[in-house]
Write a structure and sequence with these properties.
The chain is 86% helix and 3% strand. With 133 residues, the protein is mainly alpha-helical.
């Protein structure tokens, strides 16, 4: 009789005493083998974690410092770009608009410039300018 047949009888509950003893003996062997393998795996896992832990910690520290530096660079670049945009508008675009609407011979702002200034400043003089247009 094979173990497979004995196991089927054991599961069905129709096994003889000899078959029960054989199946239980084999199951006990399996349990012992599993315990032995678990112990071996635990030892290997402990050796692996002891060996890999310092390198992982160094890698995490390096990664954190790189991320911190990248974030600082990104913030610095963003601030510098914002400052450049503000300075470009202040010293580049506004004087160009002012020159376009300023007539140096008349020394008076044209209606377009007054309308533009009205749009920016939103003063009460805007009502008078809009009525003239």
């Amino acid at each position: 009789m094979t173990f497979k047949e004995a196991m089927e009888h054991y599961r069905a509950g129709t096994a003889s005493e000899e078959e029960k003893a054989m199946v239980e003996e084999e199951l006990e062997k399996m349990r012992l083998i599993e315990e032995y393998q678990d112990a071996c795996w635990k030892e290997e896992a402990e050796e692996w974690t002891d060996w890999a832990a310092p390198k992982e910690q160094e890698g995490v520290k390096n990664l954190r410092s790189r991320l911190r530096m990248n974030n600082l660079k990104l913030i610095l670049i963003s601030v510098l770009l914002a400052i450049l945009v503000i300075l470009g508008v202040w010293f580049g675009i506004l004087p160009a608009i002012e020159k376009q609407y300023w007539d140096p011979e008349e020394n008076v702002l044209s209606i377009r410039a007054e309308t533009l200034m009205c749009f920016w400043m939103r003063t009460t003089n805007c009502l008078r300018i809009n009525k003239r247009l």
